[in-house]
């Protein structure tokens, strides 16, 4: 077996572990259980209450995010928006309200149960300018240069191939497009033992890159003006001194 084949199998294992974790959470909301918002108990997603109040309670509470990428994106009517790892659809619905009927929002997620939840929430919110596609953020089911703004909320840390995600984001954005995400990064490299802990990884902790590596990988994909807008402590990595932070990052494709 070649080194590439070994890495490929590890990526599939991570996708399966993460998909299983979020499939359970989505299925429980689809079956009527009360929401337990955000990736972990310690985060507050940071949305303005008046934004959430415009959505049905079910949709507003179906959140596993770690920040508010929608306000960072400063969306305008008519824009085409893509959300990487759209989950229950909250950021897509907030974005759909902002871009209006002349705009369009696409959410991509690899977990079928999350896609069902997102479609249900969009229908409850009465929004028709949003769609949800099944796919991986490392190989987006989206046409090149077709998107004005990319959002993502607490998802890229879960990817086993983050540079591929940033390259795909660069491919699908049009020139002048904006990348505005909320995600988890660490202050130092995550120990290998923690990286192998699929529960901590699926909980958005031990899959994190260091902040410096995260910003470099975005730049390496071709983005300019890469900037951390804000940063908040998130969690300590189990059995280590490593700390993770929820950051909001913006960048542009020129
Ligand atoms: C922590 S939840 C965040 C969901 C949503 N962004 C939110 O803020 O509520 C992570 C979501 O990303 C999806 N996901 C994780 N890795 C993915 C990947 N490689 N490709 C596509 N979706 C992925 C999961 O299925 C899950 O719905």
Q: DSSP strand (E) fraction?
A: 15-25%
Helix content: 25-40%
Can you write the helix and strand succession as a string?
HHHHEHEHEEHEHHEHEE
Write down the overall mean pLDDT.
93
- Total number of helices: 10
Number of E-type strands: 8
Q: What would CATH call the class?
A: Alpha Beta
Number of domains: 1
Which ions, cofactors or small ligands are bound in this entry? S-adenosylmethionine
In terms of per-residue confidence, which ranges show pLDDT below 50 for 5 or more consecutive residues? 1-7, 39-44
What is the correct CATH architecture?
3-Layer(aba) Sandwich
Radius of gyration: 17 Å
Structural category is: alpha/beta
Describe the sheet with the most strands.
8 strands, mixed
Distance between the termini: 40 Å
Report the CATH topology name. Rossmann fold
Q: What's the shape?
A: globular
The fourth-level CATH homologous superfamily is Vaccinia Virus protein VP39
Question: How would you describe the overall organization of this protein?
Answer:
By secondary structure, the chain is α/β, with parallel strands linked by helices. The chain has a single domain (3-252), classed as Rossmann fold (3-Layer(aba) Sandwich), CATH 3.40.50.150. It has helices at 3-30, 49-53, 57-61, 69-73, 90-99, 112-125, 162-172, 192-195, 198-202, 211-220, and strands spanning 80-84, 104-109, 130-134, 147-153, 173-186, 209-210, 224-236, 243-252. Strands 1, 2, 3, 4, 5, 6, 7 and 8 form an eight-stranded mixed sheet that branches. β1, α5 and β2 (104-109) form a beta-alpha-beta unit. α1 (3-30) packs across α6 (112-125) and α7 (162-172) crosses α10. The chain is globular. The relative contact order is 0.15. The model is unreliable at 1-7 and 39-44 (pLDDT under 50). Bound molecules: S-adenosylmethionine.
